[in-house]
């Protein structure tokens, strides 16, 4: 009698790391139009998850309903529904920058991508995420009134404004570390889903870490690209673009460190016992070099533009800033693509 062969439930660490590294290849070989569109979709998917999470949890908001509100129930419901966004990103297919930290770092470590490839993908996906998030913010406010109207938020809108206000009120160091915790868990979700073979297993693998990061209160740069602009529009510019960048700059840095150091680097190190100390140090240094270049062109320069427009135009910057920055990201992605192809 032949012995029954057990079906393998999880891919091995080595196999998973290799698969993630190879999956990054089309992400930096694609055209800027496709990269930006894929980034747009990812930003929109995350925003859909956040939008639905607010709708699901608003009834338990202790600020809106002091008598029956429950902060624990509010945070648990917010976290329980939010994973819809990343599930769509992974299963439907889209380019989320926070996930691309792992994908492109893994590809770079394996030698499949160089600095220019990483920078191009990160910039294009981050910019596309911003554009998609802004579109959903406009959809929730100006285009549909789902969360109310400019200066007139409904119950859902009041929760969104409250969340946005809390995010722009934290100090820079706290935002940095909250960003680390967030993308640590986001990339654990992506890693777990890559190890699982069936669709239902992938959904569960994604759901638990994302539920955890949202319920805990960690900071996700792309999610914040939706909720803070939504707060900007609903508050009639009581929350400003300057405050938006106060959050986005350190959170982006923290997200990058969390996704690279605690997931991509960890599993690369774990699956390659032959690595020398020099090689390990080189990979860490390489990551920070390419990240600093990305951080400068994708976050710091847009922040400078947005803050300058905010100071010059005041409330008039409410819609001008996202328009100008969207154009900046589109043009920048095409320029980086040309440089990548030329070199």
TrEMBL record:
Question: One GO molecular-function annotation for this sequence?
Answer: high-affinity secondary active nitrite transmembrane transporter activity
Q: Does the keyword Transmembrane apply?
A: yes
One Pfam family in the UniProt entry: Form_Nir_trans
User: Which InterPro entries does the record cross-reference, listed alphabetically?
Assistant: Aquaporin-like (IPR023271), For/NO2_transpt (IPR000292)
Q: Where in the cell is it found?
A: Cell membrane
Any one Gene Ontology BP term: nitrite transport
Q: Does Transmembrane helix count among this protein's keywords? A: yes
Could you state one GO cellular component term attached to this entry?
Answer: plasma membrane
* Alphabetically ordered keywords of this record: Membrane, Transmembrane, Transmembrane helix, Transport
Q: Where do the TM regions start and end?
A: 35-56, 76-97, 118-147, 172-191, 203-228, 248-269, 284-305, 317-337
Note the topology in the membrane. Answer: Multi-pass membrane protein
**Record's function text:** May act as a formate transporter.
Family label = Belongs to the FNT transporter (TC 1.A.16) family.
Q: What is this protein called?
A: Probable formate transporter
């Amino acid at each position: 009698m032949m012995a029954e062969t057990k079906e393998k439930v999880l891919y091995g660490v080595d196999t998973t790391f290799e698969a993630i590294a190879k999956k990054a290849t089309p992400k930096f070989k694609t055209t800027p139009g496709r990269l930006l569109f894929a980034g747009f979709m990812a930003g929109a998917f995350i925003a859909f998850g956040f939008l639905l999470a607010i709708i699901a949890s608003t009834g338990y908001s202790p600020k809106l309903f002091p008598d029956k509100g429950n902060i624990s129930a509010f945070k648990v419901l917010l976290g329980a529904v939010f994973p819809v966004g990343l599930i769509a990103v992974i299963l439907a297919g889209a380019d989320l920058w926070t996930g691309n930290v792992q994908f492109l770092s893994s590809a770079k470590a394996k030698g499949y991508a160089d600095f220019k490839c990483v920078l191009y993908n990160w910039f294009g996906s981050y910019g596309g995420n911003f554009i998609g998030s802004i579109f959903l913010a406009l959809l929730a406010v100006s285009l549909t009134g789902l969360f109310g109207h400019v200066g007139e938020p409904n119950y859902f809108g009041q929760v969104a404004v409250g969340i946005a206000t809390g995010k722009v009120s934290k100090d820079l160091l706290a935002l940095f570390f909250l960003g680390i915790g967030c993308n640590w868990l986001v990339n654990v979700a992506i890693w777990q889903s890559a190890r699982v073979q069936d669709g239902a297993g992938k959904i569960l693998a994604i759901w638990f870490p994302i539920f955890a990061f949202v319920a805990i209160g960690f900071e996700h740069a792309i999610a914040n690209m939706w909720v803070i602009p939504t707060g900007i529009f609903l508050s009639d510019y009581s929350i400003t673009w300057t405050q938006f960048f106060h959050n986005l700059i350190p959170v982006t840095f923290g997200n990058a460190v969390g996704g690279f150091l605690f997931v991509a680097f960890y599993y690369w190190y774990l699956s390659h016992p032959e690595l020398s100390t020099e090689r390990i140090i080189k990979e860490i240094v390489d990551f920070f070099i390419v990240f600093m270049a990305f951080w400068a062109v994708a976050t710091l320069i847009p922040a400078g533009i947005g803050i300058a427009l905010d100071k010059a135009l005041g409330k008039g910057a409410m819609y001008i800033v996202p328009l100008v920055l969207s154009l900046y990201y589109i043009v920048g992605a095409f320029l980086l693509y040309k440089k990548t192809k030329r070199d």
